[in-house]
Amino acid sequence: MVTEYESTQAAEIEAWKRAKPAILSRRFGTLPKRFNWAVDQIVPYIPLSQTFGWLDKTAVWLSDERVIVRDAGVSQRDELQEKDLNLSDRLAEGTHRWAMGLAAAEGAVTGVTGLMGLVADIPAVVTLALRTIYRTGLCYGFDVKNEREVALGILAVSGANNMEEKTEALTRLEAVLSQLSPGGGHSNSDNVTSIDRSKVTAQQLARQLSVNLAKRKALQTVPMIGALVGGSVNAWYIRDVSLAARRVFQDQWLRQNHKLAHVAA
Length: 265
Prior knowledge:
Elements: H1 4-18, H2 23-29, H3 36-42, H4 48-62, H5 65-72, H6 85-111, H7 115-139, H8 148-158, H9 163-177, H10 191-216, H11 226-256
Helix pairs in contact: 1-11, 4-7, 4-10, 6-7, 6-11, 7-11, 8-9, 8-10, 8-11
């Protein structure tokens, strides 16, 4: 039996997949030339490609499953895969609010220091984004900490600057999710291919994230408004990541419970 709430969420998943990236994301995709110098200065000093694995491990360590299990009132995380979509959504909402608040505070502090603050700020907000994805998955009963491709796909979707990028990222993410069994693992036949693809994608996405976040936060280099820009852009970015993660795991929950046919993009 499909509840009214589940039907409503399925419709919202479909609407999210079809929606164009926010106007500000599209604007940052074509940043005015007067800010390009800031991006050119920042990106080479952000070692995201080299440190992405460490950021990911930190995010995994911070995504404490016990808190989700306690707040949900269940004995183990797996129960949330079948329990109640509304409950999982409430858990995810709490995770999102906390992450946005922390991102805003961190961005405001680093925003005061201008260019050098950005070098530290971007890896920090990427770690928080990864942690948010893993925590959101736990809210729906899915442990994807060992499935980095899922996190990479959600980051790519949420960071898209236009509909073409978003559609391509969604297609890749759906291919990855289709390989995941209900237990959260890849099928044996696809395991090696998936690992190889993950390594390539991580390097490519790290570079894309460096550029995209530097573009979004270029105004952070302007004196007097750096803290305001840093805090607001961080919160906005985490909001985008949180929404993408929520829709992806809602979709997985509905499919796994055979509530509705998969909502196609």
